[in-house]
Design brief:
- This is Ubiquitin-like protease family profile domain-containing protein.
- It comes from Alternaria alternata.
- InterPro entries: Papain-like_cys_pep_sf.
- By secondary structure, the chain is of the alpha/beta class.
- It has a single domain, classed as Ubiquitin-related (TATA-Binding Protein).
- The chain has helices spanning 2-9, 22-31, 43-49, 99-116, 147-163, and strands at 17-20, 54-60, 76-82, 87-91, 124-127, 196-198.
- Strands 1-2-3-4-5-6 form a six-stranded mixed beta sheet, with helices on both faces.
- A hairpin with a 4-residue loop joins strand 3 and strand 4 (87-91).
- Helix 2 (22-31) packs across helix 4.
- It is globular and about 50 Å long.
Length: 201
């Protein structure tokens, strides 16, 4: 509900921006296998998002799982999809460098591309390893519940860039200047993991 209020307050429709909530993201999980549902099940989502230049998709780690291990569904992240430059940017305040979370964002955004009928070979998935960390870039240190507010604030920050994208098209802004206390975040658990993956590769 808070993100829907934000979407309306920021007049996102005027600028070709939309926010896909967690319900839509769950639909995207189903659509990531590339198969349309019976009788055009995804038509309503295709209609809503087809004319958008930017789509911000909210991810939850309870999606796409087979079994709940007791913590599934407690973590939030986001993918900002720039349909002009064909780049999808994954942001995560806690587990940005963990493969399973990167894969979740990848699959959810892939599902959105399938729903929209995009040529996935033209798209690149960019993992934003430099995004703020809720354990360090936070006035309340070691805050285990900051991922939700992080997603809200990052969405709020991302919207103006969708309205007026940077001149070098396709370059989503680094958010390090917003968090000078720690500088740039480096991967800690998966050194050498690529910053991007092609959808078709």
């Amino acid at each position: 509900m808070a993100l829907e209020v934000l979407r309306r307050d920021e007049d996102c429709d005027t600028y070709g921006i939309d926010i896909a909530n967690s319900t839509v993201a769950q639909i995207c999980c189903f659509a990531s296998n590339g198969i349309d549902g019976p009788s055009g099940e995804y038509d309503q989502y295709r209609t809503r998002y087809n004319n958008k230049n930017w789509i911000i998709v909210i991810c939850n780690d309870g999606m796409g799982g087979i079994e709940n291990d007791g913590t599934s569904g407690s973590h939030w992240s986001m993918v900002a999809m720039d349909r002009i430059s064909k780049n999808a940017y994954y942001y995560d305040s806690l587990w940005v460098d963990r493969h399973e979370y990167q894969t979740l964002g990848h699959n959810i955004s892939l599902g959105m591309l399938n729903i929209l009928g995009e040529d996935i070979s033209l798209w690149t998935y960019l993992i934003q390893l430099e995004c703020p960390d809720q354990n360090f870039d936070n006035l309340f240190k070691q805050d285990g519940g900051a991922c939700g507010p992080f997603v809200y604030k990052m969405t709020q920050i991302a919207i103006p860039f969708g309205c007026c994208p940077p001149r070098d098209a396709g370059q989503y802004p680094s958010l390090a200047p917003y968090h000078p206390s720690r500088g740039v975040r480096r991967p800690s658990r998966l050194p050498g993991y690529p910053r991007y993956r092609c959808y078709s590769g």
